[in-house]
Design brief:
345 residues, alpha+beta, Nucleotidyltransferase, domain 5, 6-stranded mixed beta sheet, 10 helices, 13 strands
Length: 345
């Protein structure tokens, strides 16, 4: 049932999941043991029953795993009790997160683990759920009526799992037209407007402060790599390495340019500002830099096993200084990936 280990020289093996009846014997006992770990998150024992029903329903073969189908499928299930459980029951969310992180750390935590940050959208037909609006839906690849969540995942050689999440509220939800919806969905009055990278930065800071999940690397795509808030949160992690995507139009210098302080007067006050020397070269885009790299600087790597064979890309790395507001900012390693073929991209 479990994927076989990836041996040396064969790092990207499609795991065989030939599940047999014997593989799932005692499965419900395992689920019950897992569920008992979270008993201390509920103030009353009566709320644990619908919590158990919900877990059983999520593992069922139901096509739609919403409140009513699960309640009707689970033995002794009640639609109303599940509705109350999800809408009215109060549980210790921080305790639940702490218990979950302890499980993840015990099961597959490693010092060189990886924290992953990304978003996912959920298509919605109605308009009364918190955060629902017409916005980009990655699962459909277009703008659609949906909710968007930002998620943190933990991965190591032993396995992977979700460890935190935040619901993204679009800006329209903070306007007067959505005041009634905010009340109906019980959105806290003091909840600030936050971007997706800001939500990811908040999760990263919490996980680091908690100190339960061991990790060495943090990864995210260019939507987060272009965010000053998220980059600042990454910089605060001493002893960790960040790998974040950037746009091909990101501007940089192959060598850090020299700057100087220029004095000037503003409203009678002496001030100074930093600026590039007149002889400094202009920054260039990442795409332009990649086009100038010699052939010897590129190396080929297999990144995964596809249905038609190994999937390979060419890679190169170069030390660059990133441009920001006309001045050099941080100096980083730029890792460039391009497709193979006569016209690589």
């Amino acid at each position: 049932m479990l994927p076989r280990c990836r041996p040396a020289g064969e790092p990207f093996v499609i795991p065989p999941f030939d599940v047999q009846v014997s593989d799932v014997e005692g499965f419900m006992d395992e689920v019950q043991t897992f569920q008992s770990v979270f008993h201390d998150c509920f103030a009353r024992s009566e709320t644990r029953a619908p919590f158990w029903d919900d877990m059983v329903g999520q593992y069922s073969p139901l096509a739609r795993k919403s409140i009513e189908p699960i309640a009707l499928a689970v033995e002794g299930g009640c639609i109303r009790s599940r509705q109350r459980f999800l809408s009215e029951t109060v549980w210790e969310q921080e305790q639940m997160r702490w218990n979950d992180h302890q499980l993840v750390a015990d099961e597959f935590g490693e010092p060189d683990g990886v924290l992953m940050f990304d978003e996912s959208a959920f298509v919605k037909k109605g308009k009364d759920a918190a955060g629902v609006a017409r916005q980009y839906c990655g699962t459909l690849g277009k703008v659609e009526n949906c909710q968007v969540g930002v998620f943190a995942g933990d991965a190591s050689r032993q396995g992977y799992g979700l460890v935190d999440q935040r619901l993204f509220l679009p800006e329209v939800w903070f306007g007067p037209l959505y005041a009634a919806r905010r009340v109906k969905c019980q959105v806290p009055d003091d909840l600030p407007l936050q971007t997706k990278p800001q939500l990811a930065a908040e999760m990263l800071q919490r996980i680091r402060q908690e100190g339960i999940l061991p990790f060495r690397y943090s990864v995210a795509d260019s939507g987060y790599g272009n965010s000053p808030a998220f980059l600042a949160a990454l910089d605060a992690g001493v002893g960790t390495t960040a790998l974040v995507g950037v746009s091909s139009e990101t501007r940089c210098w192959p060598q850090r340019p020299t700057t100087q302080e220029k004095a000037y007067r503003y409203k009678g006050e002496e001030r100074a500002k930093r600026q590039l020397l007149p002889t400094a070269l202009s920054p260039q885009s990442v795409a332009a830099l990649a086009a100038t790299l010699p052939a010897w600087q590129w190396y080929r790597r297999t990144v995964s096993e596809g249905t038609k064979g190994p999937i390979e890309y060419d890679f190169a790395r170069h030390r660059v200084t990133v441009w920001k507001d006309g001045l050099p900012e941080r100096t980083v390693w730029l890792v460039i990936k391009r497709t193979r073929g006569p016209e690589p991209t």
